[in-house]
Amino acid sequence: MSISTTHTLTLGRQLLLLAFASTLLSTNSALAESSTEVGNEIGNQVGIQPSISINISAQPLADAITALSKQSGMQIYSDGKLLAGKSAPATSGRMSAEQALNKLLQGTGLTAQRLNGGLAIVSAASSSAIPAAKHIQEAKLDEVIVSGEKIQRKWSETLSSVAVTTAEDMKEHADYSLMDTLARTPGVNIQSRNETWGIRGVPVSGFDDQGPRTLNNAVSVFVDGALQTNRFITMSPLSLWDMKQIEVFRGSQSTVQGRNALAGAVIMQSNDPVFKNEMAVQTQIGNYGQRGAAVMANTEIVPGQLAGRFTVSAENEDGYIRNPFLDKDADARRSVNLRGKLLLVATEQTDAMLTLAHTNYRTGSNGVTRNNQRPLYYQLIQNTDAGDRIQQNEATLKLNHYLTPNWTLTSITSGTHSEYHALLDFDQNATTNQRANMDYRTRLFNQELRAVYSAETLQAHVGAYYSDSQVKFEDALRSGNTLALNAEGENKIRNRAVFGEVNWAFIPQWKLIAGLRYDSEKNNTNVTYLRDILGFSPVSAANESKSFGALLPKLGVSYQLTPQQLLGFVVQRGYRGGGTNTRVPSDHRPYDAEYTTNYELSYRGQWQQLRLMANAYYTDWKDQQVRMLDTATDTVFVSNAARSRMQGLELSSDYDVNKQLRLFAGASYNHTRYQDYITADGDDLSGKSFVMAPKYKINLGLTYRPIEPLFFTVDAIYQDESPAIYQRGGIPQYNDSVKLLNASVGYQLNQRLRFTGFVRNLFDREYTTNNNGTVLDVGAPRTFGVSVRLDI
Hints:
The chain is mostly beta strands and 792 residues long. The chain has a 22-stranded antiparallel barrel. It has a five-stranded mixed sheet with strand order 10-16-17-14-15. A four-stranded antiparallel sheet has the order 26-25-48-47, with no helix packed on it.
């Protein structure tokens, strides 16, 4: 069901009214809380810490310390060497941060000491605890935990090429959607609102031209453990409101994630419920009719046992593309996102997290009309009010049972139901009247059960996976009032897998990485043409069944050059299942699975103020699925007709010059090449690079805090040109290179109120992002806005 402008604006006003009403109703309690906070502050100064609700599950000690710091708001100074290989028991109830920390440290030979208003972890045998703690304070680095590979590791110890965006990063860069974070990520090719984004030159949907009917993506995207549908990935309707962390894995993740992670994976995690009452509201406005509102409410339902968190955001935008023929905005966008999370700590050994999410999103067309071989910025001349709508509901249940301090059992069950509707101007002009309707209903069910072991010299996981996916689709083509083509079909995939991985520190400084996954799937596709008066399709019906199986090994080794420098090498196999071409119209030919072999060299260096990460890779791709055109029947099909290779380098670094200034930089070089690819027309594309695959990407930036409440962030982004299409004879037609400057500024007026402003494409650059056809995709012009956040 679509969202009207009036309905969305009404919802936005209701959210704001709710926020202000909540503010007024909470005035008395806020005053009481303020007096309590003052009392707590005085208590801290005289050595008395307030009691708070603590809920920490059994887990590695380093992770437990991070959780305690977040729940208590207390700065905890620690040395990673002291925490390595140690585990913490489950700890919950009302207590001071110091009491909780001492419980976590029981049996570890460590103890807690007070330092500078915080706590420091030192050896119990140390005779000079406080001096040691001061040394720890000076050497402390912000550590990020990466969880997307099922074994939790520090970012500095993760060999996979992964870019991590934290909540603080999103705040400083004023990110509103996943596309904002990907725009400055090396190795990810994306421009403003371009649905053909990809990793290392591989489109998120692959090269097979299957569109939203596919259940075979080249990149998997998970949100709070739930696998996302194809159109949810490409349209990116999800707001980053209350998002905790985003991990972008570049390169195959097939051994860990399975069939849909040939080119990489994106893991998004929103904030979990905490055991305290808090609320936040935000409103934003900007040019091109940008306006929105968002609310977050967290409550402690049963102290130490049950907590809930609810978020809602609504955003509207008129867009920057105008349709002069229809005299209206061509790319208006409306979105509503709701999420509810419930955390239950049943016992000290068992907890459960239920997540429910709903998204309703409507968007117009991002294209502009080509005129005399040049794009009309920013006009789309068509007689059809084209657009896309998606409504998606998700439910995820995550269960953890902590058998021992070393063993954890985890079950993740997720279900997704998505409805997608599209209306296209088939002739892409304003003179004739051909319209295409596409309607798709997708259902995903995923179940994973795994056991994780964590000790000082050995980390491992083993598990089983099952998924049942289905998409039902209907396509229709109308010429005027005549229904020329009507087809309906269904694609079902059942996938089973067993998997495991071991990270073993077999001798000092050396670690062995070994993983294995066996994937099997069955793919059933049927298509029926209810009407085809012009004979577009060479068949009237199709019914195909295909089965696939793949053994996906992973083997690597790492060497700790120094305590702050790590070198590693990993080789692994990538896989994406085959199926049947579901494009309408076509003859619906089946095709086989495709495979990659990936060799990757990693370097991680981390010092007191500097972090440097580098990954060099080489990928050999066999039986590659590519789009082909049968000139005899004038239909497009998918074939395993190519063999390719990719090689490149990804670099990223950040440097804290001082407390006021932070510098960050990233760069990627990606050389893609078809080794063997002859199209159905006889064109030899061997030696050519992939379409939509830029060779270079560079980003530079800084965050500057002249005074504590104020910060400035600047990002400069360069992306190389890339082929959009190969015309007859293998002649490329290119997308433009991209040169962007983005900036944001924030001011924290007090502990509750924050103002943030942003501008993207500061110099108003014009550029194409998909230079193919009579309608072209283009990047956004200069956009700017401001938001106000109030924490209650």
